[in-house]
Amino acid sequence: MRYLAVFVSGLLAVAPAFCKDLQVTSIPQQGDFPIIAAGNVSDIVIDADDAPVVAVAAEAVAGDMKLITGKDMSVVNMVSSDCLPIIAGTIGESDFIDRLVKEKKIKVKDVKGKWETFLIQIVDKPLPGVARALVIAGSDPRGTAFGLFQLSRLAGVSPYVWWADVIPEERPELYVSGDPMISKEPSVRFRGMFINDEDFGLNPWASKKMDPERKNIGPNTYAKVAELLLRLRANTLWPAMHACSEAFWANPANVEVARRYDIVLGSSHCEQMLRDNEWEWRRQGLGEKEWNWKTNKKMVQDYWAKRVGESRGIDAMYTLGMRGVHDTGMNGYTDEDRVEGLTDVIRWQRQLLADSIGDPLTLPQIFIPYKEVLEAYNDGLKVPEDVTLCWVDDNHGYIRQMPTPEEQKRSGGNGMYYHLSYLGTPVPWCWLSSVSPSLASFELTKAYDNNVKKLWIINVGDIKPQEPELEFCMDLAYDINSYPPLTAYQYTRDWAARTFGEEFADAIADIRRVNYHLSSAGKPEHIYAVPYSIKEQDARIAEYDRVIAKIDSLRPHIPARLQDAYYELVTYPVKAAGWMNKKVFRDQQSEKYAKAGMRDEAVRAYENSAAAYTSIHSVTDHYNRNIANGKWNGIVRYLPWGHGPAYKMPTDFTDSVANVKTPLDLGREQVVRGGDYQAASVTVRAIEGLGTSDFAATVWPLNHKAYEASELAKAPYVEYLVPVKQGENKIDVRCLSSFPLNPNYDLRVGVAVDEKSPEVISVKTEATKGKWHQTSIAGYSPARVSYTASHDGDVKVKVYLLDPGVVVNDIVSAPI
Asked: Does the model's pTM come out above 0.85?
């Protein structure tokens, strides 16, 4: 019931035309339908000729109901007079459903012909000899599956019932009541995940726990992944592809899993035409030298052609183009001729699809302008109109480029590849998940509003511990209006309520939101490289200490059935992040204190750091060995990619304390949150949960107008009172580390201090180059001005937002 309450009130995308929402309760009501009650245990009746995914979903839902009630439900192909049945099927593929439609027992005009929609309705006398039935009718097979899993959601079953051990509350009886439920079409057509950087978590875990006979990720693992996708109302998978993982297509049983679960298969930016180069190319003894379109075209063509042939009859989308064997640029080409090479490659790939499968216009194809490929695209590469342009973030949660108005009109549409985990420059973050709902909503809603609606793929690393963040992204992709940027901060509480119960929602939301806030100004994997003052470091440690204490005080009150879930979803990710902050900062402070001759402080800091280092190991070991009776052993590591400065043991500086004490600057900065403005244009809104201050300001909804310096009087603005010290001060307007909407724009602010003429400053960065290496991990790009104050006090700072998408995180002042 806890899970139900939140879904019905806010999360579910259902048509609001009915006065009484459909619900599942444990208390009988007049006119309800007993799923499991005294005298009735419903069968789930499906047509044997319906799509395989319908049977898959029906069996899973029967298992969910047994978890709740302890009663076995049967999935059958015939209606029995022994029970009141649940009849589930696809319009046009289920004789049961088609008969109900023909006899006007159900009305499907708002479902039939739609994409992945469903109807759930209590029907009296649906068939001869049957008094009542609960009918679930899907517009297509996935729509039917989503309708079945919606029944589980309403009964209180989390999508993470298996992947995070969110065990539902036991209840002896279940009843359905309320008016018919008709789902909307999903906002984004193809929605799913990319399993990536799986070397140190998912792969070793699956090799031992799920597919030991393969000693790798195999069909048992992928079946659980596919079920999770369906429970999340998603439909697309880019499988694992690092060198450690057997290629998905190398094992026919994997492909059969995708077919049975009706999952659309795709591949990433460096795996064109569904090929996994790390496994399938390198294991032929081939490398970068042979992976060359200029010099070895025939071998590359044969390699692609074989996979395209194998993919006939499989629901798949084809990635076009070419990069290196893995995540590098196209071999044999320079910046000057890369466009020419990619043009030739894409032309040939399109012809291959036409010759092997059929008209390319009918086949989903995507082009991913990732890293250097975006530069080639902007240099003039022409991608066929019917191909989906799959735009990308900078690997750190900030979208590099949106489609222009002309690109938004493409018949192939636009997609998005977005990261919740990343192994790469400037610093990897594959350990913990820290992208807040507010940031994800701001970036992805911007994309959607610029017609990025065809495909959303989320890089989830090992899946764990990205569970809440992935769920948010899939909820948003399913219903873009569920959590827009202005209310996305509320998601964390809603998620906590339906996962752990209303009585724990506020406390758990506070714990997780603190983690999101602090991580927005430095992910746990990045903090060693962010230049915080000691004052800032101490404030972060104090906040983490507060919520860690709250985690411990709350734990005894969490129901026993949810203790494992509480550890996986709350305790581990937040405690690990907090102790990483303490380990890194106290280590750095110990060195500073030692150099300043402050022995006692240096010793205490080192001891704190060493204790935090031990705690990280301890909570990780407990997760692997003890949670869910060892089910997840090997899924998390405190050193996720085998190296990295953040993970090293603290250094003992206490033997090198300077003999003479010297002053140590602890930090004198003053911070004003972006949302705490004194005045603003009517188009400016404060967004809670966004940015380094957790309360940012921007123009919302997005305005696509850019203002020239001569138009400042017309530009939207925010105005602040900022504390300064007598003498010289630096004032940083710290803007979100986002990017211009497209190449037609800059990312500028005008900064006016004390009524003086404004300075126009660009905070634009170029991904993978220059100052981006710092702004991407610090969470802000600063616009700095200087100001000489005659006395201590507050000064008015007016910030003009000159380009669409500019976000003011905060204003930071400090004496120079």
From this structure: yes
